[in-house]
Amino acid sequence: MDKTINQKAWFLVLPVFLVVAFSAVLPLMTVVNYSMQDTFGNNQFFWNGVGWFKELLDPSTDLGGRFLASLGRNLFFSAVILAIEVPLGIVVALSMPREGWSVAACLVILALPLLIPWNVVGTIWQIFGRPDIGLLGYVLNHLGFNYNYVANDVDAWVTVIVMDVWHWTSLVALLCYAGLKSIPDAYYQAAQIDGASRWAVFKAIQLPKMNRVLLIAVLLRFMDSFMIYTEPFVVTGGGPGNSTTFVSIELVKIALGQFDLGKAAALSLAYNLIILIVCWVFYTVMTNAGSERPVKEGAA
Amino acid sequence: MARIDLVDLAQSYNGNDAPLESFALKPVTMTWRQGGAYALLGPSGCGKTTLLNLISGIVTPSRGQILFDGRDITPLSTQKRNIAQVFQFPVIYDTMTVGENLAFPLKNRGIAKAEVNARVKQIADLLDLTPYLNRKATRLTADAKQKISLGRGLVRSDVAAVLFDEPLTVIDPELKWQLRSKLKALHRELDLTMIYVTHDQTEALTFADTVVVMHDGRVVQSGTPAELFDKPAHTFVGYFIGSPGMNIVPAEVSGHEARIDGHVIGLHRNYGVLPAGKKIEIGVRPEFVDVAAPASGLLSATIERIDDLGRIQFARVRVGNTKLAARVPPGFSVSGDTAGLIFNPAYVHVYADSHLVEGVA
């Protein structure tokens, strides 16, 4: 049978082509274009080849130094908040009630921080931590701790980390809770019959069954914390000094503060690439974990 | 190894003060012999899983006691009872290998490694799981997983009874037979008390030497498959067991006679005068009613259709408003749509308010 040839379908795809072109492809290509050039304003551009990328990877230059230092801070930040939020989220999910009205109450309370806009979270903690008028800062200082996130690196870090934990542990907890709820009762009953201790139940049933949601939680939290901008910007502004300046903050400084479009473009491409790679690794891990096929008996 | 006694055991999910009629399990007193193969048979929601969970300790009874060899174990937790249970859906520990799965209950009880290995090996041999011992358990088929769940129960040497909660639900039909005969073989070999919950009468009748039929939270009869078939103690048993189920026909009974629509059927036993005000019915299995050519002296019936089961044919007939099934004797060919019914008096039972009435010989 001859295939009917009808090219009209192209018209149906065209709107998507246009939307994607203008919203993604063209801006991205503009950035690629910028990353190869230097500008001194007035819309005058000079070709620079891969110069910015070379600088980016060379810690002795200004651009490379700032990029690598902020990247290190970013990775450290992500590692710390993952190390806190994932176990804490699991503990919260495990201690949540399984039925009754208290379930709804817990879910609402957990969802609250997630509903607050980033800059408001920043503002809340910025005021909360102030030694003069903030509840936390005032109390800590009157208890004899010399706490001042504006002046002390460690205090600034602690504030930013605690703020992120406060804001996002709920997400991990909610995901874990969903994972826990999907475990059939028979597993717990079987474990009871097998004489499993609380810890053995956690290790043999709950943790493996939460596997998937935990992967999603880690992925989401890594991405979010790696791209964090608003909250530390509002609370510490990247300071004191550069101690809480993350890659995104550095990027905005270069692009909008110094108007170094070429450097900023190169940096944002590198930034994007890192996120893409991490995404890909996670995606591969997750799909591989899901592709387990049962092996027929006797096939071995 | 133990005899299990249930004393006045009852369970209500709506609190102990709820009316008895709402109990998921109405008070039951019965004994499970050491080494018996039992089937708990009944439709969904009849309380059979509740009874099973009470024995294993997953559910604490509202009333009554459970005795293992005369010792009251009602307050003991599941861990402390020597019970193994296999669930409807195979429960396996995903991260462990088959061997680790089997060893899990022993490890939890702090048993020495050498003994654990020996037991695991023995049970794996018994269940034909030896080639898979080092495989991850998640990657196996449903029937292999179900064998692992069973193995985790059997691996404990102190186990008093193995409870099965519809364990073959998710197994392919062809493998069901294999697995069921495996269970039978294990039962003979290990001398364990096995209680098998199912709503499938074939499964129950082929597995068990004693079948306990439950209906609406009550045990209505317990006996050998033959007893259940020949002499159902309750119309529900007659109807539920056998395919097609027993014919239940409203009748008037006195002495040696039952009357259906004025037609007299002879009975094997003497029933005297039955108490008034009760609903009197006679029950007879289709296998013991033969279709014959219409004749005077035979109860006449209208034939609605013939079900050919291959080895045997059943005629679906109607007497007045009552539908019956009757055997078409070999060599008899149905002509026309009326027929006479011949009852075998030895197998006609009389029921008052659904319960069997014992006649006098």
Automatic annotation (TrEMBL), chain A:
One BP annotation, GO: transmembrane transport
SUPFAM superfamilies: MetI-like (SSF161098)
TM ranges: 12-34, 75-95, 101-121, 156-180, 213-230, 265-286
Membrane topology classification: Multi-pass membrane protein
GO annotations of cellular component type: plasma membrane
Keyword field contains Transport: yes
Predominant place of localization: membrane
Keywords, alphabetical: Membrane, Transmembrane, Transmembrane helix, Transport
Gene3D superfamilies from the UniProt entry: MetI-like
Domain ABC transmembrane type-1: start-end pairs: 71-282
Family (UniProt): Belongs to the binding-protein-dependent transport system permease family.
UniProt-recorded name of the protein: Sugar ABC transporter permease
Taxonomic source organism: Bradyrhizobium uaiense
